[in-house]
Amino acid sequence: MHEFALARDLIKGALAALGDQKGERIASLHIRIGAGAQVDEQALSFALQAASENTAAADCQIYYVFTPPVGYSMAPHAEVILDTIEVTENPPCA
Predict the structure, then answer these.
(1) What is the pTM of this model?
(2) Is residue 74 in a domain?
(3) 3 φ, ψ to 5°?
(4) b/e for 16-50, b at 16 or more Cβ within 10 A?
(5) For 41-55, how does the pLDDT look when each residue is reduced to its tens digit (9 = 90+)?
C-alpha cells in the first residue's frame, strides 16, 4: 500500500510549509487525487492519521478532491475530460 508513503510525504510537506511557527497547528489539508492514482481514500485517511500523530498536523481535517481522468491531444489547447478509463492490451509490435 503506497498510501503510507504518500501520507508521510504529505505530512512532511505540510509541516515544512508551516515552518518554525511555534505553537501553530495545521487545521486542514486539501488533497487532490487524480483518477489514475489508484489511492484508497480510507487507507490514506488512516495513514494520514498515523503519520500526523504527535505533530502540528494531528487531528487536522482532511478534504479530498478527486479529479477526473483527462486526455491530451498534440493539438494546442486540446483537453478532454473522460467519463471512464478503458485499459486494453497493447497490440504486438511489428
Answers:
(1) 0.69
(2) no
(3) -60, -35
(4) eeeeeeeeeebeebebeeeeeeebeeeebeebbbe
(5) 899 999 999 999 999
